[in-house]
Amino acid sequence: MSFLSFLTTAGVEEVKASTKRPGGGKAKQWNPAATVLAIRLWKDGSVFPSQALADKFDLEYRTATVEKVPLPLKDGQTEEERKFKNNYYWVSGPGNGFDVIDSRLWPGYKAEGHMLFIAPVQKDQKRVDLFGGVLYDDNGTPKNSVMDQGSPSYGKEVLLTAVKELYGIELGAEREYVDLVVFSDFGGIDITEKFSAPLALFPKRIVKGDDKGGTDVIRREKAQVFGFVPAEILNPGAVVEDTTTEYSAEEVAEAASDIFKA
Amino acid sequence: MSIGVGINENVYISAVELDSNNYLNIQFKQKSDIANPFEALQADDVIDAKDTLDVKLFAPTPRKNDDGKFTEAKLVDFVTTDINKTKGIIQHLLAGYVPKEQYAIGKAIFDGCGMDATNYAERLLNKDVMLQIHKNLSNHLISVLRPFIGDSTKLFRLLLIRTSKDKHFATFRSTRLEENPFWEDMDVPKEASKLAFSAYEIKEGLNDGTPSSRTESADKPKTEPANTMTAASVFGGQ
Question: What beta strand segments (E) does chain B contain?
Fold first, then answer.
């Protein structure tokens, strides 16, 4: 089975109350179906990856080696009162998060239509949009798995608006979430090949400070770019309850060709 | 339209050479809608044909220490700082074109220097070794840049500062380049540009390219380059 075979079955499985969000709350299926490559965006901006996505892109937070660095003593502070700063290291690397790229803001993007893209990036790089960081305990153990962390900040500040403006999907009381599928091949278009480059300038929304709302760019090396589109746009017949219908790659391509005129 | 102190747009590297005086000359050219002097002279406006600028990088030179004022460690520190500035500039330029694994020079910086961890300080203070390091850095720039020299399809925004209060020649800033870059891809929207003069540069007048009262000839190299080493002469082609 190829990596891209998920395209033929892209959709969302029926919601079954099976897991509970850490810390309590109404039981919901927070993550997309385990086998699709997708991220579920909730109406509060929280984001949850599928298990397949976490595995493929190495998203899980790893146990870190902690180095305690003593901070300088302040006036009147005794040695017993000295504070320490934790530095974290990962023997086999920190794993990845994602940059999210809004084509409307992407320098150099040339295509008739607009959409979101996504690119894995090491968690220790600056300004990672999704799954970039987590809190650790003093032993270097992550306090959350990437599967249930559900950080809402980027989703609330950027992603909800982008999904509404680009895909016409507004989350709220009537609709609580959308599954955004991560894909490369689309109707014969190799998105990763077409949009990746040895050097890339990715747009970043400025979310605080005097320039809040503006756009910045960040330089990335060897970024692999993927499409990031709601499942229902990729697979127009799919509805939340439908877990059985499969669509051919040709059907998918035809239905969504209007956003891929590059 | 000419390149100088300030923020220059639509610029690319048109030539690089290590000349017979061991000056590393990096020539920038500004892309213009006017294709050549023939067209320029026929244009409605008077167009400054000087749309290129050479920025020079020099080899480090030993500090005078006849009175023994500086310790060896301090002297090593001076040279290391000078080399790091040149290395930073070169890698910053290359980062506009290639990923880090290609622009980082690594151990090759000491090729031909006879240097190891035990004799580092002693060798670094040798004038010939300083020159060799400068040549290594220069050749690294030339070799990595070779496919891109003269490529006017990839354009940059370039900030140049005045050399000093006395010298108005345009040059690169050389410290904290990650936070304060001196060039960036023209694809970066102007409103998102990170190029700006620092408060220090403005205070020192380094954002002003107006010639000082001192004669320019005092600042110019004493000799003209004779035989030059270019990417073409080293690698062929071009």
Answer: 6-18, 24-30, 52-57, 156-162, 170-171, 183-185, 229-230
**Distance to chain B for A190, nearest Cα, Å:** 23
> Which residues of chain A does B187 touch, with a Cβ-Cβ cutoff of 8 Å?
107-108, 201
Q: How would you classify residue B203: left for phi > 0, otherwise alpha for psi between -120 and 50, otherwise beta?
A: alpha
pLDDT digits (tens, 9 = 90+) for B23-82: 999 999 998 765 566 766 777 766 555 689 999 999 998 888 888 888 988 999 999 999
Instruction: Report pLDDT for B101.
Output: 93
Which of A198, A214, A217 minimises the CB distance to B188?
A: A217
Single pTM value for the model: 0.75
| CB nearest to B99's CB, from A199, A201, A215 | A199
Using alpha carbons, select from A242, A24, A6 the residue that is nearest to residue A150. A24
| Average pLDDT for chain B | 85
Nearest-CA distance B191 → chain A (Å): 8
Report yes or no on A128 lying in a domain.
Answer: yes
Q: What is the number of structural domains in chain A?
A: 1
| DSSP code per residue over A143-209 | SS-TTT----HHIIIIIHHHHHHHH----SSS--EEEEEEESEETTEEHHHHH-EEEEEEEEE--SS
pLDDT in tens, chain B (238 residues): 689 999 999 999 999 999 999 999 999 999 876 556 676 677 776 655 568 999 999 999 888 888 888 898 899 999 999 999 999 999 999 999 999 999 999 999 999 999 888 998 889 999 999 999 999 999 999 999 999 999 999 999 999 999 988 888 999 999 899 899 999 999 998 888 999 999 999 999 999 888 876 544 444 444 443 343 433 433 334 3
A42 inside domain: yes
**Residue B192 C-alpha, separation from nearest chain A C-alpha, in angstroms:** 5
Question: In terms of residue numbers, what domain contains A151?
Answer: 5-62+95-259
> How far apart are the CA of B144 and the nearest CA of chain A, in angstroms?
14
A83 inside domain: no
Which residues in chain A are closer than 8 Å to B188, comparing Cβ atoms?
A: 107, 201, 217
* Residue numbers in B near A199 (CB within 8 A): 97-99
Question: Do A214 and B97 lie within an 8 Å CB cutoff?
Answer: no
Whole-number percent of chain A with pLDDT over 90: 56
Kindly state whether residue A79 falls inside one of the protein's structural domains: no
